């Protein structure tokens, strides 16, 4: 017998699947039609392949496709290898917590923010070039170098670097999330104990026993990262050459072209982008197979000091790199946002001013308001839908019509992350203009929800599923209804992960560039759209202010998520605040 | 005492009500709806000042309708014409130039032959300055009055480049000797096309007349040969060897700020010193104009054919063209928009008004007169852009 509450959770599950799949599929259809020449508003109501013919006649189209593939695959590969070697070397080490902290600045900064921050550090007048000059490592001292490697190189090295730097912390976070699940953590702990007793080093144990267990669990997120990296817009737009750019950037430029007939070619390019992403996934699958076939090499080889040495060096240098990067990002971006004149190659500006913050402050209010309002509403809705959907997993029901099948559900969950934004967002806009021409906030809300939902779900699912079942069984044993169990036991126990998921939702919503821009036609500015606009504006210093804001917003969200439970659910704090003055209670935070 | 007090009170009452009555009549009759782009705080601030002056001197209230895009006002007048509203239009005055003017002229949306009746228009010396009556190569025919002008100015980092190139040939020599220190935006950007036009005009002294007529295939072939030769030589010496080019004009300023570029250019001379004051350009930045001339375009004021308050609108235009209003507009702290008046026709006292402004070391010197190239005929822009893309490839 199903209670009303349980029925409600089942409805929520259907809504969850619908919200994730319908916009994406509708968007893909909306791009397919104009790609094949059907766009009645532009006076074309028959199907043809002119768009594709035009596309393949474009100079350098092959290079564009190649760049998208190359940068996407190599960045994902680098980030994955980096994250795994970090885990191999540091997983059982007590430094793991500290290492995670090194990676957090690049984790909370949105992609656009990372790209801009890298410009501050690595461009010919950036922090690194200044250090090189100050240390006297260059011939033309005191003058910016023109043959500098970064950015806008023709081989996409800058793009690959930007993507890899940004994706590594994310993969690390996902992997650590998986490893913290109780059933996996127990197994891993056992492996480490028995293998250490046999004399293996932690990194060898990781490669031989933990990796085969871990990889299948992080595979789908990795594929999402790969799909994202092949189709990302912000990083190649800000760091890549425009002669030619990656395909994703070209798609955006064609769609934004004043000549509306470019839409046909743009749509065709969006379809090709989808194929490029699929092809990148295929490359990944084939490589996986290749490595799987050769697995005996990994399993059967013994301890190798050389291999261990290489792995260790790699992991330590990654830590060094990220440590230096994080420091440099904070240093450069903060200082630029307060700098007066800053002549090359000085490492400090001539003076400090709050002028740029004042200027930004005057213009930032509407964007900040939009960003917060949207983020809070979207995350709240995503959180409710996620909790209900997770709760529906406990309902015992046999039905052909309900999406209870786990495999199907997981694919749907990752659908918005696997289908490139440039491939479905334009189609979605087409549908929107066709059916809801006046709407701005509605479509904006839906596109953000599409991207926020998967992350909130992934973040919360682990905690939800590992909740100690005994409490729940006891409650049921005492005759409580599912709703009572949910309200009185699950919600309070999950308060902490719920807040973290909410904060993650905020962070994802804050960072959306393309969905925000496209679904509103640029009419509702957010901090991220403003930052990207400013990055192509005339002031480095104002851009720096926006990057700081972009970093602070999600960071504040996570800080609150981390602080609130301690404040309200920590028995010792509560006791203290009753007895003494909580202001002096330093342990509370 | 009481009697005189009450008499005074009555008199006061009568005076006040008379004043109020007069004011309300004026307010009803004399509101001029000025449709003008409202995206710049400096422009909006200047129009605020203009409104106060007009109220004081003529009792006219100027209402600035802040447009996001001038074409909005153009379509509004067009819609009114289509709806048969020929006498009571909602737009009294409009700030236009270029393609918006071309569209309004084509659809006969502007009041014709009124400009010469404006007393202050004579101060622009239009006989000698044909740019005052030509809008992107199209004759204005008295349908719009010049208001201000923008010219392509160059600016350089005087610490790294003490003596900047003074003409188009020296520019190429400079870029050869200092590779990577100059670039221009891809011609999708208006400043990029403007640079091409500048080079085109500067390299074609003998064929210049062709540029002010509608473009033909033959004319284009004749004048473009020198341009392509020039650009073929320039591109490999530019920033990023001319492969990656900036997408927007604003990026040039950023590259100047980071001292990667040593020389750049802009259509708004006033933005250079203002950027230096905001620390967004190095202190050693200096603005100058090329000796051979600068590409210039003028922006204009038009009165729609159906304007409800055309008499007041004419008064407003005359005020906007007065030396006082033009001098105020030219002040860097106000707007920094160059005057359309011919200095030689002004009295010494009026000239003073233009000189009292504080000079900024980075600003364009006002003492040197620079010859101005008018914009080529509007039809050249697209042809030029398309030919460039065909030759050098699209930048996306």
Automatic annotation (TrEMBL), chain A:
Gene Ontology, cellular component aspect: plasma membrane
GO biological process, one term: transmembrane transport
Cell location: Cell membrane
Membrane topology: Multi-pass membrane protein
Keyword Zinc-finger appears in the UniProt entry: no
Classification via CDD domains: TM_PBP2
Listed transmembrane segments: 12-41, 61-90, 102-122, 155-179, 220-239, 264-286, 314-344, 364-387, 408-429, 441-464, 494-514, 544-564
PROSITE patterns: ABC_TM1
Phosphoprotein recorded as keyword: no
Domain (ABC transmembrane type-1) ranges: 65-283, 368-561
Pfam families: BPD_transp_1 (PF00528)
Keyword entries, A-Z: Cell membrane, Membrane, Transmembrane, Transmembrane helix, Transport
Family from the record: Belongs to the binding-protein-dependent transport system permease family.
Protein name: ABC transporter permease subunit
Organism: Alteromonas profundi
Automatic annotation (TrEMBL), chain B:
Pfam families, A to Z: SBP_bac_8
Name of this protein: ABC transporter substrate-binding protein
SUPFAM superfamilies membership: Periplasmic binding protein-like II
Gene3D superfamilies cross-referenced by the UniProt entry: Periplasmic binding protein-like II
Entry's transmembrane regions: none
Organism this protein belongs to: Alteromonas profundi
Superkingdom, taxonomy of origin: Bacteria
């Amino acid at each position: 017998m199903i209670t009303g509450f349980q029925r409600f959770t089942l409805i929520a599950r259907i809504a969850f699947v619908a919200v994730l799949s319908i916009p994406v599929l509708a968007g893909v259809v909306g791009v397919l039609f104009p790609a094949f020449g059907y766009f009645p508003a532009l006076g074309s109501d028959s199907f043809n392949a002119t768009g594709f013919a035009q596309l393949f006649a474009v100079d350098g189209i092959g290079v564009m496709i190649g760049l998208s593939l190359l940068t996407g695959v190599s960045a994902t590969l680098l980030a994955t290898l980096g994250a795994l070697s970090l885990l191999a070397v540091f997983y059982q080490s007590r430094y793991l917590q500290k290492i995670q902290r090194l990676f957090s600045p690049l984790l909370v900064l949105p992609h656009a923010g990372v790209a801009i921050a890298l410009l501050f550090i690595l461009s010919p007048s950036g922090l690194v070039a200044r250090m090189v000059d100050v240390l006297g490592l260059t011939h033309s001292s005191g003058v910016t170098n023109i043959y500098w490697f970064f950015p806008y190189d023709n081989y996409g090295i800058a793009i690959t670097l930007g993507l890899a730097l940004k994706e590594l912390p994310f993969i690390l976070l996902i992997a650590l999330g998986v490893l913290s699940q109780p059933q996996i953590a127990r197994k891993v702990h056992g492996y480490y104990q028995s293998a250490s007793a046999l004399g293996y080093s932690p990194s060898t144990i990781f490669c031989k026993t933990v990796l085969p267990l871990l990889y299948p669990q992080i595979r789908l997120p990795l594929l999402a990262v790969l799909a994202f990296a092949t189709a990302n817009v912000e990083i190649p737009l800000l760091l890549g050459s425009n002669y030619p750019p990656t395909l994703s950037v070209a798609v955006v430029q064609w769609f934004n072209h004043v000549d509306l007939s470019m839409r046909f070619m743009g749509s065709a390019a969006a379809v090709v982008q989808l194929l490029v992403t699929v092809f990148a996934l295929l490359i990944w699958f084939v490589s996986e197979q290749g490595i799987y076939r050769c697995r005996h090499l990994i399993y059967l080889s013994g301890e190798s000091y050389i291999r261990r040495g290489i792995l260790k060096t790699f992991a330590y240098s990654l830590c060094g790199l990220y440590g230096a990067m994080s420091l440099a990002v904070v240093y450069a971006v903060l200082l630029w946002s307060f700098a007066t004149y800053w002549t090359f190659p000085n490492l400090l500006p001539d003076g400090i001013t709050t002028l740029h913050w004042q200027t930004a402050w005057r213009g930032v209010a509407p964007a900040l308001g939009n960003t917060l309002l949207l983020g809070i509403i979207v995350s709240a809705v995503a959180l409710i839908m996620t909790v209900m959907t997770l709760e529906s997993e406990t309902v015992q029901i046999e039905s052909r019509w309900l999406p209870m099948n786990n495999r199907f559900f997981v694919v749907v969950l990752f659908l918005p992350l696997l289908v490139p934004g440039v491939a479905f967002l334009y189609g979605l806009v087409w549908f929107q203009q066709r059916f809801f021409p006046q709407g701005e906030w509605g479509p904006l809300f839906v596109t953000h929800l599409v991207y926020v939902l998967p992350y909130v779900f992934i973040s919360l699912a682990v905690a939800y599923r590992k909740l100690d079942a005994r409490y729940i069984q006891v409650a049921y044993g005492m005759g409580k209804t599912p709703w009572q169990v949910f309200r009185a036991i699950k919600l309070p126990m999950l308060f902490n992960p719920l807040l973290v998921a909410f904060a993650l939702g905020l962070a994802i919503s804050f960072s959306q560039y393309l969905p925000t821009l496209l679904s509103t036609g640029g009419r509702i500015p957010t901090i991220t759209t403003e930052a990207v606009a400013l990055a192509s504006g005339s002031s480095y210093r104002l851009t720096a202010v926006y990057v700081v804001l972009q970093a602070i917003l999600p960071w504040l969200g996570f800080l609150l998520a981390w602080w609130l439970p301690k404040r309200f659910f920590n028995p010792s704090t509560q006791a203290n605040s009753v007895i003494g003055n909580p202001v002096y209670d330093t342990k509370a935070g | 005492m009481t009697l005189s007090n009450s008499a005074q009170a009555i008199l006061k009452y009568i005076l006040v009500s008379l004043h109020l009555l007069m004011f309300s009549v004026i307010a009803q009759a004399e509101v001029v709806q000025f449709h003008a782009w409202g995206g710049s705080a400096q422009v909006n601030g200047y129009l605020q000042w203009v409104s106060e002056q007009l109220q004081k001197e003529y009792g006219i209230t100027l209402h600035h309708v802040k447009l996001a895009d001038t074409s909005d006002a153009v379509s509004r007048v067009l819609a009114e014409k289509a709806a048969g509203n020929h006498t009571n239009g909602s737009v009294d005055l409009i700030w236009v130039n270029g393609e918006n003017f071309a569209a309004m002229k084509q659809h006969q949306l502007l009041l014709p032959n009124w400009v010469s009746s404006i007393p202050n228009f004579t101060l622009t010396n239009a006989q000698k300055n044909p740019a005052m009556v030509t809008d992107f190569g199209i004759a204005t025919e008295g349908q719009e009055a010049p208001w201000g002008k923008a010219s392509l100015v160059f600016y350089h980092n005087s610490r790294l480049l003490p003596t900047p190139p003074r003409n188009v040939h020296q520019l190429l020599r400079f870029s050869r000797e200092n590779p990577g220190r100059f670039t221009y935006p891809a011609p999708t950007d208006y400043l990029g096309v403007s640079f091409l036009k500048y080079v085109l005009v500067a390299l074609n002294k003998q064929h210049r007349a062709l540029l002010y007529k509608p473009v033909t295939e033959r004319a284009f072939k004749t004048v473009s040969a020198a341009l392509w030769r020039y650009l073929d030589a320039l591109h490999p010496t530019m920033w990023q060897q001319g492969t990656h080019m900036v997408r927007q004009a604003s990026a040039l300023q950023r590259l100047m700020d980071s001292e990667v570029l040593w020389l750049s250019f802009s259509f708004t001379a006033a933005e250079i010193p203002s950027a230096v004051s905001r620390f967004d350009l190095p202190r050693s930045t200096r603005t100058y104009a090329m000796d051979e001339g600068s590409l210039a375009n003028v922006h204009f004021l038009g009165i729609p054919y159906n304007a409800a308050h055309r008499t007041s609108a004419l008064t407003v235009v005359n005020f906007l063209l007065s030396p006082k209003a033009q001098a105020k507009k030219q002040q860097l702290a106000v707007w920094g928009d160059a005057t359309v008046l011919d200095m030689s026709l002004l009295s010494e006292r009026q000239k003073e008004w233009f000189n009292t402004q504080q000079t900024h070391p980075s600003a364009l010197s006002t003492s040197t007169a620079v010859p101005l190239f008018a914009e080529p005929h509007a039809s050249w822009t697209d042809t030029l852009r398309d030919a460039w893309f065909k030759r050098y490839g699209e930048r996306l």
